[in-house]
Amino acid sequence: MKAYKISYKNYWGDMGEIVFAETTGKAKSKVIGSDGFEDASFTDLDCKRAKYADNHENDSQLNFDLLLIDNGWTFGMEDSREVINEDSRNMVIKFDGIDNLLTAFEEGKVSYDYENDVFKPVEEDK
Predict the structure, then answer these.
(1) Spatial distance between the Cα atoms of 106 and 87, rounded to a whole number of angstroms
(2) CB-based contacts of 10: which residues, under 8 Å, 6+ apart?
């Protein structure tokens, strides 16, 4: 199925999501009211084709996360400056996806090296 990148600027910043649909209008309709798009109206949304994601709607979460990273997407953590991007690719793989990496960070299993802007595993006491 065709993939579309839906973008919306709200008071939290720029929101973006890949949506699979037959048309631009159907893609926009799918995100209205969803997380991050609660206040968006149909005309507030920017919608562009994301051909790199065509036919990837059934990918595993890890493979889809890597597809986005490999195509220039970055993911910021809420209320912080830590960013998941191409430099975080190996950590995303290690933790089997972006959501799991974020959970590991929140649980203290991963730290963020602000000097080098990368995630690092926390050394366990031996």
Answers:
(1) 19
(2) 36, 37, 39, 40
